[in-house]
Amino acid sequence: MVGKMKAAVMHETNKPLEIEEVPVPELGYDDVLVETKACGICGTDLHIIEGTGYKPKLPHILGHEPAGVVSKLGPGVTKFKVGDRVVPNIFFTCGECFFCRTNRETLCTNFKGALGVGINGGYAQYFRAPSKSLFILPSKIGFKEGSVIADAVVTSVHAVRRRAQVKADDVVVVIGVGGVGQSVIQISKHAGARVYAVARRPQRVEVGSRFGADDVINSSTQDVGKTVNDLTGGNGADIVIDNVGSKETLIQALAAVHRGGRIVMVGETEDTIPLSTFKLCVNELDILGSRSGGRQDTLEAIELVESGVVTPFASDTFPLERINDALDSIRQGKVMGRAVVTME
Question: pLDDT per residue over 151-175, tens digit each?
Answer without folding.
Answer: 999 999 999 999 999 999 999 999 9
